[in-house]
Batch of 2 targets.
Target 1
Amino acid sequence: MGTAPFPQHVIARKRDGSELERAEIEAFVAGATDGSWADYQLSALLMAVFLKGMSPRETAILTEAMMRSGTVADLSSIRAPKVDKHSTGGVGDKVSLHLAPMVAACGVVVPMISGRGLGHTGGTVDKLEAIPGFRVGLSLSEFRAQLERVGVSLISQTAEIVPADRKLYALRDVTATVESIPLICASILSKKLAEGIDALVLDVKFGSGAFMKEKARARELAVALTSVAKAMGKPTRAVMTAMDEPLGHAVGNALEVAESVECLRGSGPADLMEVTYALGEQMLVLAGTAADAAAARVQLERSISSGSALSKFRELVAAQGGDPRVADDPSLLPACPGKVPLPSPSDGWVRGVDALGVALAAQGLGAGRARAEDAIDPAVGVSGLAKVGQRVGKGEPLCFVHASDRDRLADAHAILARAIVVGPGPVSQPPRVGEIIG
Amino acid sequence: MGTAPFPQHVIARKRDGSELERAEIEAFVAGATDGSWADYQLSALLMAVFLKGMSPRETAILTEAMMRSGTVADLSSIRAPKVDKHSTGGVGDKVSLHLAPMVAACGVVVPMISGRGLGHTGGTVDKLEAIPGFRVGLSLSEFRAQLERVGVSLISQTAEIVPADRKLYALRDVTATVESIPLICASILSKKLAEGIDALVLDVKFGSGAFMKEKARARELAVALTSVAKAMGKPTRAVMTAMDEPLGHAVGNALEVAESVECLRGSGPADLMEVTYALGEQMLVLAGTAADAAAARVQLERSISSGSALSKFRELVAAQGGDPRVADDPSLLPACPGKVPLPSPSDGWVRGVDALGVALAAQGLGAGRARAEDAIDPAVGVSGLAKVGQRVGKGEPLCFVHASDRDRLADAHAILARAIVVGPGPVSQPPRVGEIIG
């Protein structure tokens, strides 16, 4: 190894649109991790990457360097195939909570490390914490031991995994360099590949409630994610899914846990199950435990009808210190004293339920964070959300608001009344699942 | 005034190519000055400006905000016109040392605040410090008092003038964001306009020894500088001058002082005097003390032939604590024990003297800095430099090297032997002064 490239030379090369060398990208990631690059140099390079892009080769090198900036979990002692799922984030997206035990019940190990909510509503880890006693902060050795015993574990980011991403993500957030496809790719994949998985399925969302609102941009991200992951030797597929209206009927942490339990009991909402099966099918196919999507679908449906997925969920909750009885009695979850309906202003059909509007209403109720340090109220949210295409009569509820006080209730009602549009004439519900990439 | 715009919103707008509002630019400059923007946010915006540019309107607002980040000298008590000259920097550029007293001898006040050398060779302030006793660090009130009394003062940047530029320049240097026309414009003009001048003449150089090597880019900078300065109400003209070979015969701090004294004595090299007169003519015309360039030229030539410019130089040197006898006896300047000629390898004509090569040789001798904290040796450098178009015989000196030790001498000789090209057949010396812009 020669001497590390100077930060300003690396920055100048990317600024001028050149493809960076491996040593330059590794110097940048090492600099972010050990502090040898100043924050102002990191952010200047982040902006240059934002505006000049990175080739697939550069993105793969960045991903690998970031992955190796911390511990890479060694799950080689587990012989079963290990597959994870990652979603780019949407409103009402509680898929991981029931999909992970469904897939584990089919014999595929699911080692899932998730983030907290960065958008308007809680993330998977926030939802799990709505279960009384549930511990998301396992160490990597506890995580591995649980995967060996139970076949599934859902934990939060640990300090050992990809420290470079914590540094870079914090900088990107305050320097307007978040929405860059190579930087998003490297951030997502470095953390997922550090889990020690064999394959990965991505849920890449588009629409008003998605991180990437435009379908074309989301597709670009899906292509980049799958090609970089493959270049790193990990079979990966991306399922494009629509996020114009929330997934399912519930938005809010405890309310979403309850809806996931309904899914495991065989009574999940159609749109939510459509996405769940599409993702689960790809997981089983990539794991090699199903020959094709149809065969995988049969296995996944059987995990529900047999009760094995619900058992696996109880086992998972108990293993992480939570109360497994929530799988049978949702009244054990945190709840507001009551819920207040939002009546439909007219007879007609639900023409649109704006996911971003619902998310803002839920955030205002306390279900999400405005800043990283904000606390979340697990009980609040929106339930019984009407779906696009649904016929409603004047005065019938379009949803129910679970609020901790009257002011927040009034604000949420006002936002939701604008977000849910009722009009004359029937409309059909658009499909959720689009193209599969990779 | 409302609340200041958030740094990340301002960064995002520039990143997306929008024209920034006055309040956004003012927030950035205030943030650089008072520390309310983090360095990583400043550098992210600098990179976005580098890559997305700034309109003339934005550049003028940035310049004004930077100028107002510190003290703006109030020279309104001085009734005579006050005009300064600024050069973008070149090799052997000692013009300020003799031009300032020439123009002052013609009745125009010259309030000149200069930087140290940022390139390979010393800046005006470094050259002045080669004069025994000369103080460049006057306070602004000493500066004003001397301008009232002597009509000319040459000092270094003070802490009170444009603190925002000190912060931003230091960041630009380590984040590869120096070569941006709007940022260069705002940096130069904010400092010059803070001097309290009525008008400004710019020497914008192009060629191998210039900051902007390409003529088209240099012209772009000249157009930007003059239009922004005019938008701020300051009559300004830019003289484009070639910097492919060094100006005059000497490069090195004391050697250049001696050459400036020769200019004041009427025996300055032709190319150096061509640039000196072109700039001086514009200064007198903008000051309103000459009707046109030809009339200004007569006044400037008379300042030399009458000895008034040399007297003004003595007065200037004495006023700032220096030994005025250097105007009559160059042996009072620091000098090396001897000088060693570089012999011509053949009979022929000098076809090229690469300014960058000469600058690197001079820097190696200790005449310039590699880092801001390096000390300069005032005695070292190159003298008697042959000029392009000059006929030379084999073994005749192409220049003399003034070195402090043998190793440095050998290195300089080797670099200079490559920089000075002798070939068969006559060539003519190209003109130094090009277009006048503004």
Target 2
Amino acid sequence: MTTLHLPLDRSSEHPIHRQIYDGLRRAILEGRLSPGQRVPSTRALAEDLGVSRLPVLTAYDQLLHEGYLEGRTGSGTFVSGAIPDDLLTPPPPGARAPARRVGRVTHSAPRPRDEGGLGPFRMSLPALDRFPHAIWARLVARRARMLRPADMAYGDPAGLVALRVAVAEHLRAARTVRCEVEQVLIVSGSQAAARLAATVLLGSDDRVAMEEPGSPLIRAALGAEGADVVPIPVDEEGISVAALQRRGIRVRAAYVTPSHQYPLGTSMTAARRLALLDWAHREGAWLLEDDYDSEYRYVSRPLGALQGMDAHERVIYIGTFSKVLFPALRVGYIVVPSALRQRFVDARETFDLFSPTLYQLALADFLREGHFARHLRRMRGVYRARRDALLTGLARHCAGRLTVINADAGLHLAVLLEGGLDDRDLVRRMAARGLTATPLSICYTGGGGGGRSGLLLGFGGSTERRLLEATRVLGQILEA
Amino acid sequence: MTTLHLPLDRSSEHPIHRQIYDGLRRAILEGRLSPGQRVPSTRALAEDLGVSRLPVLTAYDQLLHEGYLEGRTGSGTFVSGAIPDDLLTPPPPGARAPARRVGRVTHSAPRPRDEGGLGPFRMSLPALDRFPHAIWARLVARRARMLRPADMAYGDPAGLVALRVAVAEHLRAARTVRCEVEQVLIVSGSQAAARLAATVLLGSDDRVAMEEPGSPLIRAALGAEGADVVPIPVDEEGISVAALQRRGIRVRAAYVTPSHQYPLGTSMTAARRLALLDWAHREGAWLLEDDYDSEYRYVSRPLGALQGMDAHERVIYIGTFSKVLFPALRVGYIVVPSALRQRFVDARETFDLFSPTLYQLALADFLREGHFARHLRRMRGVYRARRDALLTGLARHCAGRLTVINADAGLHLAVLLEGGLDDRDLVRRMAARGLTATPLSICYTGGGGGGRSGLLLGFGGSTERRLLEATRVLGQILEA
């Protein structure tokens, strides 16, 4: 065990726990602490530093949460074998980066109206049964009782400062997003963010590239102002930059889901990320990075956002609380390059002035008081178990009838149907049995026919038992 | 005193109080009860009908609220001298309707960013000090504790049915809006409603007419999709239909504030309303009626909405809770012709999916449990007193330096400045003394210079004492 050099500055504007976090993180990234190395116990480090144990616990918690440290039951805390930031250093030009899957993302699901409801397989639904209802209700009630006139009057179109500060801190720490608080705007979710970006960035003569397949609602948002939405195929590494280049000029922006391609579930490789950033820089195009459910990954640790790798301020980063908390909250955020900030704020004001204040206040409390980080951490195990149950059920009841494309991350997985089955027809038959799936074909431009036939199966909102039972029913339907 | 024929049907889906209300209202409108006539006491009528006194009180309450009945202290309840619905029967063609001022409306104020804050004269601000905080906090807390999974998941883009039912009932009864529940959509306020209407109704080659002067933010919303916003002057009777006609073809829609012109405060006469409806019908154009603060009128009773006079489904009716409750709620509504409904719902979904559920639930409770009607009624006296205080203060401290244009309705009044004063400069000097006024000139196309120099003085958000003091300070500034 090394003695750590962790200079603390009590007059700093950064709290002690943040300084401990920063010091440990730096020591790990600079190699002063090596993968597999054991770190001091929180009690020992607190004594060394002459501080209480609380800030040390907070710092360890965050580092465990982000994957810098890992705990082994009964034997202490260790530096992780693989460090999340390793992709942040671009490989030398020409070198092929390891084709390892990184991070993931999704966003507002297509919501075919006839397949609504909260049945098993419902897309984009978090584990509402595991949400900390009592804590949330207490925070909301407290803020509702305390509402001051300023909280009831007109709010800032950019969002409540306290919430923007908390979001910026979270994004910097957990998603390696590089941002100042001023760049963070609070909006009504990722749909609203995409719609807003379309208004600010796209004229009616412009083209905007979108991953094919992709979310029909996002496609509608991007084309809402008359821009031509150009479908660009996604391969195993992510959106095809070669295809983007072939589309030539006037592609003003490209919408991508690098961490978890929506809907197929693949992750963009490091090489593809760099090629995409390079394309955007050369063309002067914008990248809309929708990084929604990036917090959940089951095969390796979450990796940084595309935004954090971007040296030229071409990325507009979009996220939402719909899937880490719950959709009816209607709070998301957008991180914009400083040069675009005022145009985004003005457009947002023209749309709907500002977001409701009460939820922004309660949410800022929820983040600041640590409930958010705790909830995220707890949900990781919950979703992994649900995903495993779904995979087990599919293998047991549906083998030979469908193929799972990717189940590494997020709250849903995509499967391809064998034998020329019409997925929209299948979804209707599933709905009749109480199952709420989404057909894959509606995610292709034109809405079906041309695209692949498959199912998007959400597993976030259903218990393991319910998912196992649902796959049994799905097996019967496929059999029939 | 007549014996009233009020047949009650206990098996009806309408509650007893509603049947009593309907029966009395019909008797008044059909002339079976005449203006000035005394109606039975609630106790006597309850006995006559063989019901408890509660439903009779509820019905009388509503009729008093809407101006069908009036109470004279110590002498009972009487049919009002002037009946709100008298404009609903159009005058015979050619006949000139009385130039009486009717109803009023306003909406999201221009919010010049440098003059923010909650100082006296802040526009569009209700009496937050008189809001029933405890009741509201209780309803919100109750709903937050009770949130079911369905309330946390994805909601209906059209809005929560319970709230739409309550809004439709309110609009039918209080604003003579003709609508089915299906036509009511819940949105984030009147700004969002105008922005949504622009997306649905206007292409980039279209023209949209807007009252001149008008709200800069609404002007931005109407032009956001590339439509050409054509300013149409407002005279003493309202928007100039002659000027509209001169603009020729391709005016797809006209945005109007018939009940309370924003910002000047005039009300559209009945004759002008009929001419405008006639124009829209002939041209196949849409009328966007923004009917925000129509609940408050000080010189005569509120009159019906333009929408209720329209026989051809040309009116899109917009309202908001921002000014009757509080702006940070972010809940408004839009009533659309049935033929347009699906397009509005689809566009709304593309914008931001749906409105946060919790506030919709709490607001539905607030309306259903009668708190809303009570609050509206109480505020009428509060705002009248505040308006009177402002008028008194202006007469006392600013006489000869400015002219009040109109103070009949709403939460603000407009004044014109004498002697060529620059209103934007004056507003800056007022801000330095803690006063939050809005310059009138920014409401003209181009944002100043060409328009009239004046001030928009909000009185809703300040107490009488504060308004009197503020006018004294304004007098000193004008003197300097």
